[in-house]
Amino acid sequence: MKPQALLFLVTGLLLTGAAQATEAEHVRASHAWLRVLPGELPAGAYVTLENSGDQPVALKGASSDAYADVMLHQSSSEGGMSRMAMVDSVTVPAHGTATLAPAGYHLMLMKSTHPVKPGDTVRMNLKFADGSTLVTDFVARPANAVDAGS
Questions:
Q1: Domain ranges of the chain
Q2: ∠ CA(138), CA(67), CA(135), 5° rounding?
Q3: pTM score, two decimals?
Q4: CATH number assigned to the domain with residue range 23-141, chosen from the 4 options 3.90.25.10, 1.20.1250.20, 1.20.1300.10, 2.60.40.1890
Q5: Three-state secondary structure call for residue 150
Q6: Which of 3, 49, 112, 125 has the fewest CB atoms within 10 Å, i.e. is most exposed?
Q7: For residue 130, how many other CB atoms are within 10 A of its CB?
């Protein structure tokens, strides 16, 4: 193969690979916070995810060095009974948002590896269906917090 033809082939392959953006590259996280509960009780983490891409993306979970386990949950209320269940994913629609908030979808943080206090920042890796991750800092808020600013 001629050097010039090889150059065009390699350039074409590189451009094709670059055109395939990961799900995480289309997502922006904002208002990331977590509610710290007393003692060994699990914490809840909340965030707004905005997808600028043309396709929906799926948040599949998260991980953090500050917690041994991070699970995706959904809270609901039915017939006066509050329930919480694990979910496999949360869809962020194309050109839309998904909000993880109290009484809805949230990340359940179990078994802290060190004490987390209000005001601390906890770094989490948000994991998407294609295997990409989005590193996001969550601000710890006290047990009585109801949103990112309280």
A1: 23-141
A2: 40
A3: 0.83
A4: 2.60.40.1890
A5: coil
A6: 3
A7: 14
Q: In sequence order, what are the residues at sequence separation of 6 or more whose Cβ sits closer than 8 angstroms to the Cβ of residue 13?
A: none
Return the pLDDT at 64: 97
Instruction: Enumerate residue ranges in the chain where pLDDT < 70.
Output: 1-20, 150
The pLDDT value recorded for residue 4 is 59
For residue 11 the two structure tokens come to 């350039």
The DSSP secondary-structure symbol of 55 reads S
pLDDT of 17 reads: 46
Which pLDDT score, from 0 to 100, does residue 18 have? 45
Q: How far is CA 70 from the centre of its chain?
A: 10
- Cα distances from 59 to residues 72, 73, 150, in angstroms, run 9, 12, 26
Radius of gyration over alpha carbons of the chain, in Å? 19
Rounded distance between C-alpha atoms, residue 67 and residue 119, angstroms: 17
